[in-house]
Batch of 2 targets.
Target 1
Amino acid sequence: MIYIAVLGYGTVGSGVVEVLERNKESIRRKATDEISVKYILDLREFPGDPYEDKLVHDVNLILEDPEVSIVCETMGGVGAAYQFTKLALERGKSVCTSNKELVAAHGPELLALARAHTCNYMFEASVGGGIPIIRPLNSALTAEEIESIEGILNGTTNYILTKMEKEGADFEEMLRRAQEKGYAERNPEADVEGHDACRKLAILSSLMLGKNVSVDKIHTEGISKITAADIRYAKEAGRTIKLLGISRRVGEKVQVMVAPFLVGPDNPLHAVDGVFNAVCVTGNMLGKSMYYGKGAGKLPTASAVVGDVIDCARHLGKVITCFWDEEEADYAGLEEVENRFFLRVKTGAEEAMEALFPQGKIVRFPDRKEDFGYITVSMKEKDFQERCGILGDTVCNTIRVEG
Amino acid sequence: MIYIAVLGYGTVGSGVVEVLERNKESIRRKATDEISVKYILDLREFPGDPYEDKLVHDVNLILEDPEVSIVCETMGGVGAAYQFTKLALERGKSVCTSNKELVAAHGPELLALARAHTCNYMFEASVGGGIPIIRPLNSALTAEEIESIEGILNGTTNYILTKMEKEGADFEEMLRRAQEKGYAERNPEADVEGHDACRKLAILSSLMLGKNVSVDKIHTEGISKITAADIRYAKEAGRTIKLLGISRRVGEKVQVMVAPFLVGPDNPLHAVDGVFNAVCVTGNMLGKSMYYGKGAGKLPTASAVVGDVIDCARHLGKVITCFWDEEEADYAGLEEVENRFFLRVKTGAEEAMEALFPQGKIVRFPDRKEDFGYITVSMKEKDFQERCGILGDTVCNTIRVEG
């Protein structure tokens, strides 16, 4: 029997307990032993809950119990979760988590602590919910030099953008409806301003490089400025707008950004709609491979945490290889990045556009007199920004073009 | 230093050597030791080849060298490859292979032999080339009960079908052009009649169940009867034709088949075009996840073999868990499977069709007088076949409809 503890009995924590219960038989077989929840830590009471007798309020009961070999940290945040994770690892207890904020902020430190105490810190659930993406990077694509990672890493924003495209609605309206359906939080900033995607990109980029990529080094833009008109122009140009996290090796450096992009049909991310997430990895031998699925939700996320628990159970007393050093990555600025760009521009600026951005392509609708769309040829970010400055408020919006 | 041997210096074997050379530094770091090719076994001579000095013709040199701890079997076939694999495993040497024919035919026996000698038999490259799909099933989706696997498992047929759709050409012409481009073999039967996809489905289904699924129990149809007209009707109905391998749990039994299907845009496999492969896995907690990439080719396949070598290097003297028993799976017949069906039928049979298959949908083109398309409502395979029998040669072709 392998005893585990669950820290935090919220959505994911209760999902972990549910997955362990519902797939009990096959999990026992795959873990080669039965996995039993001995404690559930939460500050709240859950009267009448079938696991009420496992509930404790003091983490020390768990930390001091030598029978507990694996801890699931499903609390979230970087306060108590950070402290409890360190205390557990120091006692040789493996920790499996869905807490992307903590992993992005302290991943290499916690991995080193786990190694030092011959246990494991596992975080498959922190990126892409139940989609296996950490394992492909850590243990499958090991013969590859990963050249880039490009992903739709946030389901809320992808849902909003997909709905805006399908229904021609504006951002504010779709956000409201996503909130009503429970696909967006009441305080949606972490999702819509790209911070959630940024944390996930920091984790993926760090695993790609083996060095640390910090959240505050990632250029991050959200989707709140995207309008129905932008999406309509993009569609007319054969493209769709997606919030992408992109991490690219440039020599010894790395370029990292989260921003909306116009994505064409040749990119496998083009067809990834609604609440789905997908991560596209380009390796120097394999080329592109893509991992796709529901990036959030109670049971998908919990399933990934339990998958990590099973791996820890198979590797008790052994360290599972994961390269993510504390050494900070060397960042390349965005100024030199070359992209095509989409601009929505006020009518009348046609000549100025063609002078500043020669050989671009105009997209126009007979029923829209106030503005037009324009797609430039490939150019450097710094040149683009400089020329946009000249146009001033004639430019209504600008979005990068992928590929 | 970890010494390995490569059996078979053909496309994949020479790719293995190339991947090890080109990504030497990062592979050394990930394997936590240098991996060195000590022998290459081939019956042929390769005068002037940079690895000429490693070339041997006698497998016993490899088998009897205690320094060799990992063997890459990239010979193919089930003759010598089978024999050499057994001999290597019996000596405690792990074997990594791309040989789907051998894995499908003798997987559980070779896995048991590896376990008995505390080494590993690894075959990530046998399905989907470089796309990680074996590891997601074996070590990531372990908290799931996998309910079904559905995949585009053969790049040659997907290339032909995609081209037929894009260019309106017939099967024979596109096959000829695929052969000219090197995407199809001179003897294309294994690909176009579905045997290659069948072997891969046998491997995936066995891992899904933990029991053995035999190639000869899989109902297998190829694509050679698909015409440009079928594809045109499918497209008009908003669907595309794909050769799918499908494996589905039905209670304690499993339904397995390889056949062309009409696939709609809601299925993520719909957008998988050209030489790309994709595998869609449905788990009871996670729902659908999909794994996508190039399913063949020298370097992608070799990259997967080398990924396995790295995993073996990390686990020398340890057994990596893989559930695939010799016990045969319990098969459910196809008769009870419910699908919708597409039929292409000679003009004049409209009334008969509506009598035999009520509530179906007719698809018609003004410029095609000789036949029409018809999509039935969902019905059992046995009822469908029975009613088709009544229509006799009025029916030009029938294809199942997915979803």
Target 2
Amino acid sequence: MKNVFPVLAWLPKYNSKFLMSDFVAGLTVGLTAIPQAIAYATVAGLLPQYGLYSAFMGCFVYIIFGTCKDITVGPTAITALMVQSHVSGSPDYAVLCCFLSGCIILCLGLLNLGVLVRFISIPVTTGFTMAAAITIASGQINNLFGIRSTSNEFIASWYNFFTHFNETRTNDAALGITTLIILLMMRKVKDLKCGRYKMFTKYISLSRNALAVLVGILLCYLLRNDDRLPFKVSGEISPGLPAFEWPPFSTTVNGTIIPFKTMVSNLGASLISIPLISILESVAIAKAFSKGRLVDATQEMIALGVSNIMGGFVSSMPITGSFTRTAINNSSGVKTPLGGAVTGTLVLMALAFLTKTFYYIPKATLAAIIIGAMIFMVEYDRVAEIWRSKKIDFIPFLVTVLACLFWSLEYGIVAGILANMTFILYKSARPIIIISKEEINCVQVGIVEVMETLCYSSAEYLKYQIMHFTSSQAEGNEIKLIILKIQDNSSIDSSVALNILSLEKDLSMLECRLICWNWNVCAAGVIYRLHSKGNQLLKYGKSYIKLIDDLKLSPSFITCDIEGSLN
Amino acid sequence: MKNVFPVLAWLPKYNSKFLMSDFVAGLTVGLTAIPQAIAYATVAGLLPQYGLYSAFMGCFVYIIFGTCKDITVGPTAITALMVQSHVSGSPDYAVLCCFLSGCIILCLGLLNLGVLVRFISIPVTTGFTMAAAITIASGQINNLFGIRSTSNEFIASWYNFFTHFNETRTNDAALGITTLIILLMMRKVKDLKCGRYKMFTKYISLSRNALAVLVGILLCYLLRNDDRLPFKVSGEISPGLPAFEWPPFSTTVNGTIIPFKTMVSNLGASLISIPLISILESVAIAKAFSKGRLVDATQEMIALGVSNIMGGFVSSMPITGSFTRTAINNSSGVKTPLGGAVTGTLVLMALAFLTKTFYYIPKATLAAIIIGAMIFMVEYDRVAEIWRSKKIDFIPFLVTVLACLFWSLEYGIVAGILANMTFILYKSARPIIIISKEEINCVQVGIVEVMETLCYSSAEYLKYQIMHFTSSQAEGNEIKLIILKIQDNSSIDSSVALNILSLEKDLSMLECRLICWNWNVCAAGVIYRLHSKGNQLLKYGKSYIKLIDDLKLSPSFITCDIEGSLN
């Protein structure tokens, strides 16, 4: 029970000292969560309230199912971007996507299939994050300058920016750029050595997004002239809490009813990529903040899955662990997952009482917050590390970045994963095989050592290498025996076994014997079961000399004193 | 030059003794090639003459480029079936497919990418052949009984057979079934021990298809009643040789001109699967008949590519090495590839003079020939071998068979390949890691040996295994040092290196050191370049004791006499 509901483990031990810490941390996170939620709704192309709808359920659910005190589950820039291409019809797509992603994540968690994300290597992850950050930031560049734009895509956004640059609105541009610069500076404030003001500057730095929004709202409200506002704003936010109801299993676009099946097929590949990316983000964050403790990835996936499923009931878009807010939570000194309750309540209160105020949030402020976050989402150090440590790993990185930027985020990561998988497949087709030649008892022997597991893709390679070695010997110096050694513990498959049997036949035409030397029972069994004469191939022993005697390969009339005892 | 044009190597040494052997073999192959060509045109859903158009160019081209004396290039049942779904619009699709397949095969050959077929394992090949044979035979079951049918697919054919069984035409059914039984018996005739008639029965057996066609034609001609024929026939064959002209880069279907681009996109995945299957068949045959000689797969692919390209100029459908006819060629005692010239000339003469006669070939005879060939194309022994040797290899086999039968041949083989690749990927994610615990100089040491190459998919697995091992130790018995050993010759990628660095951090929280012990320069370099403190991780030496002393891990006040010298 305590494994599935970790809350049962820590809640009974809860004491009043934790309460204050959790309250302050929850509040700080909440002050970031609200502006980010509204901003990420813009990224997803949804009305601002959907961001707030997404920002509370995860906090509450994670208290019950979560294992890591720091993690904050909510809308993130990447999931917002990934859902964006589907919501043009109706926001119901985002909500359904949230619910279904939750179901998929939960299933993957229960089936322990979270290990699938291990096939997303660090170069691919880094490339994906970089491309997503660039795409998201590019999508906001027009809003930052008050230029009208309809697209959030990388190329379209910059094309729009340069072709419509003369439509820049001075007010918006000034506010946007100033906010961005101040945000970037405030991020650095907490690193300053200010002695006694350290706590103060730290919390100022942590709640900088809320401050930016507050300043934006104030400016917008105070500088308004009759009903004309000085800045472009996000528009009305419908007040009140979302209804708790079933996710939309059908929707209406332009008067046409779209059934469940069509909605699912429209969501398509996103129903695989969004859950996988969500798992990847959430588990990676859990690991980053686990400090040497083992992360229970299955439980994290259950928490994330239930969060998304419950989110589907309150009109949420897909949610996952947010790196920014988790870091804020951690540095604000949170003690237990209960901090999430404060964050969630704050979001709910904002929805209940502050929606009128949020009307005045300038778009340029939101753009500055988003761009400010994206600049630090790119892992520059990581890119340098990949380049330094192994140049070839730059290929999957570049494939991912370019395919994500110029094709689409979903297919980009798939392209990166596939590009990287070719490394594994290539390696499997080219195992390390060491072939050496020895003269034992006047018999030329080829000793073949396979250093890795053989599988069907390497079967012909092995055969080719041995045939090439055997047939390339000079005349009068022919190899009479090939001794094939494989690793302990490693088995072979039927393709390898069949190739070895056909290799034996081919070698016999060159009057050369093939012996599988000291194979473990698992690999030997495959050969043995395949062929009634299989046991002629399999030999065990300690000395090659005895083997050669047994095989009667040594010419008996020549006396040799060469000793070739090997282990 | 002799590598690219092997003809230059053997033609100067040609002598009159070879001539007779080559002539007899070429004639025997031709007598099989003609009925098979007409039959496989039916399988492809093309008019009979297209089969003959496909059957001569490969023979001539292979003389110049081929390396293996036995191989006969021409239409085969599988390529016919694979092209069948595209020709309903126009036979031009088959011809264009032939030309483009040739270009692709040639490119793959020149780029040495023929190794790609190594990823098609024996279980997948066996399953594909089996499914193709079943599909082709099923497609002919209606013709065998004289039932009208429009489909060649597995389910549709049998559905049509059972629902229209009452439409069976007695004449056709009698001819078809009798022919089939006689063909199967004649196949066995050559195994009989007839002493002096051995040569005679051998050639009767080898030319049984031609005899069956001859008997069918005679029966059909003699039993005709005015203009009513006793059997269903294939229909008119337009007489004369095909024009030598550019392949059809556009075509007209129902009065609409279809441009090149649309034709290519209609051919779609077939432009990948047909070349790959052609290479697979052709190279596999070359290997089967090479008798211990190394097969120059690149040259075989060049020969096959040029054959298909030239075939595109004479209205051929895709062609590849035919196992049946190659076997006949071999057992007829062919000496050089020149035998192909006789076969090719025979086909040309049939086209020039015999088309009127071919009008009388009963469909039931062709169906019997096809079904008779398909029964022996299924490798029953192979299936048994796979089952015996390794049960798990039955999964890709079954996936291939079922997907090919119930989905489509192209996607079926892809599904099988992907199912089998999961084995490689799973293996790469779960390398063999041996962790043992030793007490050296009173220090608890964990010795981790990785038996296979580490790559990104196994990076987290390694980390998890070590963390799990370290944190699961009883109190007072904590591991103070983890010694990580990898294989000689094997390198690591940046994901593994980054995971090892993060593992070191996590271990340091448990007050445990991590040492990469005696790593080769290639793998060590990745760690070293990544981290300025990387060389603290990397240690070299012969004795663990010295390492523990150097690291100052041993409590100096305890005197230990445990020696732990290891290589």
